[in-house]
């Protein structure tokens, strides 16, 4: 409100028509390797966001054009970096409240994936690159080939492999350590109009229009925006639809640990009975697993694609349909003492089907051991018949799980602009 009054007052005092001035500005936001969230702790990011915020929140500013270009360093697959740079651009756009963008503001969102042209420029300015002449010749060849394909890199171009192979990888290792971090950046270009204000200061102590002691600080709107400090958080909640169909509800939680590893906790609990007809359908238990994710999809986004794991768990059950009953484990004991125990190895594949939904197919093979008893109902009593041991080697786990992806950045991007 003060800015609006200031603009009206200064125009009136000037006594002449005032034309809006068009201005241009640019900013860059840096990112952690392999991540797309905005971290205000990275040096320079907070200052860039404050500058952008001060432009957008000014009541005498009109946003004409906003262009956001997402970028990434060359390591990793082409598809991974297309996805990563796309998400970085989207996260910057999500920082800007809709109220700051008018209907005639032009918005352009794009991504460049692996920033080979940026690498060429930075490498050209670095005198310490080993075998610099050969390195620059190769980067120049890559830039020419990329331009011939309309700047759409393909895996078959093998640009990264050629750079790694140069001089035993010595230039690549130097670039990876010293130059690649500078390429994990997205650029913001802003064109906006402002109403100029005449200089109302007088000689002597500096004063400001309307008697304001100092210009107000910009509103740090990014504190209320979807910006996460630190690393992305990847979590999944799941239910095994095979068990759900059998009226044995299940719930699982999976947490991504980094470096393609995750930890999973599974629990199943169904406790149904009809005493009058001696019908029991009871089972509960769970397992813990550690998974290693691999393959093309896993390299593009955590908790997606192929996974191998090891697991261990416990299980108890009580099944009876009016005749002989079967109870897994021993009655009148603690859960740990009476349960069957299992351990094994598993393989699975998590298939994206929607932005935040996957279906996970998993099979586990291993050992199931312990004791179970047979009993028969006799009026209001249950008569023990026999005790048996289980020593089973084979399939001990089967899942077709509906997966809900939770966490900042933990979504399956839709295909657009040649990336995913």
* Number of β-strand runs: 13
What portion of residues is helical? 10-25%
So how many helices?
Answer: 11
| Average pLDDT | 79
- Taking all Cα atoms into account, the compactness measure Rg is 31 Å
Question: How would you characterize the overall build of this protein?
Answer:
It contains eleven helices and 13 strands. It has 420 residues and is an alpha+beta fold. The strands form two sheets. Strands 5, 6, 7, 8, 9, 10, 11, 12 and 13 form a nine-stranded antiparallel beta sheet that branches. Helix 4 runs antiparallel to helix 5. The longest helix is centred in the N-terminal third of the chain and has 18 residues.
Keywords:
11 helices, alpha+beta, nine-stranded antiparallel beta sheet, 420 residues, four-stranded mixed beta sheet, disordered C terminus, disordered N terminus
Produce a short descriptive summary.
The protein has 420 residues and is an alpha+beta fold. The chain has helices spanning 2-14, 45-56, 78-95, 116-124, 132-148, 159-165, 170-178, 180-183, 241-245, 296-300, 335-338; strands at residues 21-30, 61-72, 106-114, 185-194, 235-240, 250-258, 261-274, 279-294, 305-321, 325-328, 340-354, 357-378, 381-406.
């Amino acid at each position: 409100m003060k800015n609006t009054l200031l603009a009206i007052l200064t125009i009136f005092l000037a006594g002449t028509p005032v034309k809006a001035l068009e201005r241009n500005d640019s900013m860059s936001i840096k990112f952690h390797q392999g991540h797309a969230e905005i971290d205000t702790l990275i040096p320079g990011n907070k200052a860039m966001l404050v500058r952008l915020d001060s432009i957008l929140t000014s009541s005498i500013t009109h946003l004409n054009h906003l262009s956001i270009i997402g970028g990434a360093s060359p390591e990793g697959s082409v598809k991974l970096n297309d996805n990563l740079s796309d998400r970085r651009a989207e996260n910057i756009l999500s920082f800007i409240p809709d109220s700051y963008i008018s209907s005639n503001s032009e918005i352009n969102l794009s991504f460049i994936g692996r920033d080979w042209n940026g690498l060429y420029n930075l490498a050209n300015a670095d005198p310490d690159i080993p075998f610099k002449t050969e390195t620059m010749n190769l980067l120049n060849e890559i830039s020419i080939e990329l331009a011939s394909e309309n700047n759409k890199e393909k895996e078959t171009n093998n640009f990264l492999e050629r750079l790694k192979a140069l001089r035993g990888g010595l230039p690549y290792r130097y670039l990876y350590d010293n130059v690649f971090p500078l390429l994990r950046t997205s650029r913001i270009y802003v064109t906006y109009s402002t109403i100029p204000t005449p200089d109302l200061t007088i000689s002597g102590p500096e004063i400001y229009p309307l008697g304001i002691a100092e210009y107000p600080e910009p509103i740090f709107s990014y504190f209320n925006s979807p910006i996460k400090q630190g690393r992305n958080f990847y979590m999944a909640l799941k239910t095994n639809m095979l068990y759900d169909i059998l009226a044995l509800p299940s719930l699982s939680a999976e947490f991504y640990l980094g470096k393609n590893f995750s930890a999973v906790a599974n629990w199943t609990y169904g406790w149904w009975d009809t005493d009058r007809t001696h019908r029991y359908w009871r089972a509960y238990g769970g397992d813990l697993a550690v998974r290693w994710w691999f393959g093309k999809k896993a390299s593009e986004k955590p908790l997606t694609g192929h996974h191998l794991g090891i697991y261990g768990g416990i299980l108890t059950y009580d099944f009876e349909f009016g005749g002989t009953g079967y109870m897994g484990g021993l009655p009148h004991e603690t859960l740990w003492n009476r349960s069957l125990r299992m351990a094994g190895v598993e393989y699975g594949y998590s298939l994206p089907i929607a932005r935040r939904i996957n279906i996970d197919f998993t099979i586990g093979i291993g050992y199931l051991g312990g004791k179970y008893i047979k009993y028969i109902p006799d009026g209001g009593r249950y008569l023990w018949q026999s005790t048996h041991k289980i020593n089973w080697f084979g399939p001990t786990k089967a899942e077709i799980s509906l997966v809900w992806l939770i966490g900042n950045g933990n979504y399956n991007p839709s295909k657009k602009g040649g990336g995913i």
